[in-house]
Design goal:
The chain is an all-alpha fold. It has one domain (15-477): Up-down Bundle (Amino acid/polyamine transporter I), CATH 1.20.1740.10. It has 17 helices and 2 strands. The chain has helices at 15-26, 29-71, 78-85, 88-117, 126-143, 145-174, 205-220, 225-229, 236-265, 285-290, 297-332, 350-368, 372-406, 423-438, 442-445, 451-458, 460-475, and strands spanning 192-193, 198-199. It has a two-stranded antiparallel ribbon. A hairpin with a 4-residue loop joins strand 1 (192-193) and strand 2 (198-199). The longest helix is centred in the N-terminal third of the chain and has 43 residues, at 29-71.
């Protein structure tokens, strides 16, 4: 190894960029595309309630992560916390599941980006576009962590501006100050569909809300990336709590506000919403709302297509960054090949980046040759992993706080104290378990049972368990005693 090359990550992410990374992680295609499907499934009231409950759970989870990340801003974040405060085998399972999730998510975003571009260039080769996007994202990440953070700052800025404009325009349309139809009011909250036997504001009952919990959870996933970015953040003691605390208000403003506007303006039985899961700009509820504005309908689709493309590139940028940092951290803790822990002269873990990109590219090319069901299986599994990670974060925090007290430390000495402890992490833990096992209950209620749907919905749960048990048997690990839990940020 060259003596002039660093052997660790660099603290190059500033407060401005870290805050935008927190926003960018919480705003993606889930809001721009899947939110319409949530309204169609559960109605305006059911979707709003489900997003609000999930938002509260994510806020509690982020408070837990914030307390640990501020006290120990180290590489690996929750994977390392699991090793130190719970069981090294749990850290192994969380780390590899998280890396797998983001590697496959990277492939998903490449596919989504190539399809979105075909809105403008329908006869172009989607594989070439995806390769071009991957090259761009690799260049940003290989250049330096500053380049990644700055790119994410502007990607997130575009999304934030769009959501704010959407909410403002939507409120003006609801009260009748914009649009040609007068005030909309609560008309769509009292809508009935006699043919379907459904009526607003709650459509489909509790089962439908469980499905929206899953959609909402997928939408919020990525917020935990702030914990990983803490290891490369300047002045983490000040900047991490600031980013963590702002997540709640962004969730309320961007998600709850946008879902409320969509529920007021678009009826739950709108045929476009029923196909909102398709990767097509025509079915974005944002586009549907803007098309009702006089004089802008002709270019609304192009505008929203550009915004959603920026959201996809932002998600891909984060996927590559987060996946590589998790692999880097696992290499340093002996959970992954040591080569993945090497960094270049700019402090970038190049090997971990290339391995993450390679897995993403392989999954993408598998989808382009007709193996759509295989690709869908991997994509669904990557989404389900998020809930497993969040569950792990809640468990880590409960052990973190118990170990802190058991070692005679004062709560007043914590650099950041999570709100609502212990109710917060316990409530989040229970909800995440309910979503993991209950959100796909529709698989068992279908007229014809589908093994593919069953496997794609639940495959990652037994895989996570097998990773944990396999490592435990192999390494003969045990639960870390509270007195032995390591709070030293410089000691592995």
């Amino acid at each position: 190894m060259k003596t002039d090359a660093p052997d660790h990550l660099q603290r190059s992410i500033g407060a401005r960029q870290l805050s935008m990374i927190a926003i960018g992680g919480a705003i993606g295609t889930g809001l721009f595309l899947a939110s319409g499907g949530a309204i169609a499934q559960a109605g305006p009231g059911g979707a709003l309630l489900a997003y609000a409950i999930m938002g509260a759970a994510v806020y509690c989870m982020m408070q837990s992560l914030g307390e640990m990340a501020t006290q120990l801003p180290i590489a690996g974040s929750f994977e390392t916390y699991a090793e130190r405060f719970v069981d090294p085998s749990l850290g192994f399972a969380l780390g590899w599941n998280y890396w797998f999730s983001w590697s496959i998510t990277l492939a998903a975003e490449l596919v989504a980006g190539s399809l979105i571009v075909r809105f403008w260039f329908p006869d172009s080769n989607p594989s070439l576009w995806a390769m071009g996007f991957l090259t761009l994202l690799m260049a940003l990440n290989l250049l330096s962590v500053k380049a990644y953070a700055e790119a994410e700052y502007w990607f997130a800025g575009i999304k934030v501006a769009t959501v704010l404009i959407f909410i403002v325009v939507g409120v003006l349309m609801i009260v009748g100050l914009l649009g040609n139809g007068g005030a909309v009011g609560f008309a769509n909250w009292h809508l009935s569909d006699a043919a379907a036997g459904k009526s607003a504001p709650f459509v489909g009952g509790f089962t439908a809300m469980l499905l929206v919990f899953l959609v909402a959870g997928f939408s919020f996933q990525g917020t935990e990336a702030v914990g990983l970015a803490a290891a490369e953040t300047a002045n983490p003691e000040k900047n991490v709590p600031k980013a963590i605390n702002s997540v709640f208000w962004r969730i309320v403003l961007f998600y709850i506000g946008a879902i409320a506007v969509i529920g007021f303006l678009i009826p739950f039985n709108d045929p476009n919403l029923l196909r909102s899961g398709e990767e097509n700009i025509a079915y974005s509820p944002f586009t549907i709302v803007f098309q009702h504005l006089p004089g802008v309908g002709a270019w609304a689709a192009n505008l929203m297509n550009f915004v959603i493309l920026s959201a996809v590139l932002s998600a891909g940028n984060s996927s590559l960054y987060v996946g590589s940092r998790m692999l880097y951290a696992m290499a340093h803790s002996g959970q992954a090949p040591a080569r993945c822990g090497h960094v270049n002269q700019r402090g970038v873990p190049t090997t971990a980046l290339w391995v993450t990109a390679l897995i993403g590219a392989l999954a993408f090319f598998a989808s382009t040759v007709g193996e759509q069901k295989i690709y869908q299986l991997l994509y669904n599994a990557s989404g389900l992993t998020g809930f497993i990670i969040w569950l792990g974060i809640a468990i880590c925090h409960l052990r973190f706080r118990r170990a802190w007290v058991a070692q005679g430390r004062r709560l007043e000495d914590l650099k950041f104290r999570a709100r609502f402890y212990p109710l917060g992490p316990w409530a989040a833990l229970v909800l995440f378990v309910v979503v993991l096992f209950g959100a796909n209950i529709g698989v068992f209620q279908a007229e014809i049972f589908s093994w593919f749907d069953f496997i794609s919905s639940y495959i990652l749960i037994p895989i996570a368990v097998l990773l944990y048990l396999g490592h435990k048997v192999w390494k003969k690990t045990r639960l870390v005693p509270l007195q032995d839990c390591n709070f030293n940020p410089g000691q592995d």
